[in-house]
Amino acid sequence: MQQDNINITLLCIESKKINIVTLPNCPGCEKVKSIFKELEIFEHCNLIKLNEIDEDDYDALVNELEKITNTRKCPMVFIGNEYIGNDNRIEDMYIVGSLKKTLLEKLELDIKEKEEEF
User: Fold this and answer.
1) How far apart are CA 80 and CA 105, in angstroms?
2) In this predicted structure, what is the pLDDT of residue 5?
């Protein structure tokens, strides 16, 4: 992959609504996907699978992502063109209800109401 292709991947992060940078066999990646499935918005997610990036270009892409996110840890979750965080941050936002609020504000999506269990 040339620099142009790295830029295309990064542009994809900006142009899609919800982007999840993932790796296979990543428990955190599965956790994030599960949360978005529970909210019934997984169909609005774009998965950027790092394992499908050419080996020669992997480091360059991850270095570019690190400049944006200050981390190399997957998953990396973007909402709109804003980096939101990793699995722990998404889970925390989900638990306190701010993930739904953020999604509604940024994406204007109909999100399934999470039933509170007391």
Assistant:
1) 11
2) 58
Alpha-carbon distance of 72 to 81, in angstroms, equals 18
**d(C-alpha 67, C-alpha 71), whole Å:** 8
| Structure tokens, 71 | 């981390």
Q: How far apart are CA 90 and CA 58, in angstroms?
A: 25
Instruction: Note the pTM of the prediction, 2 decimals.
Output: 0.79
CA 103 to chain centre: 12
* pLDDT at residue 78 is higher than 50: yes
Q: What is the distance between the alpha carbons of residues 105 and 27, in angstroms, rounded to a whole number?
A: 28
User: CA-CA distance, 37 to 103, in Å (whole number)?
Assistant: 14
Per the CB < 8 A criterion, the answer to whether 23 and 29 are in contact is yes
- The domains of the chain, with CATH numbers, are 3-107 (3.40.30.10)
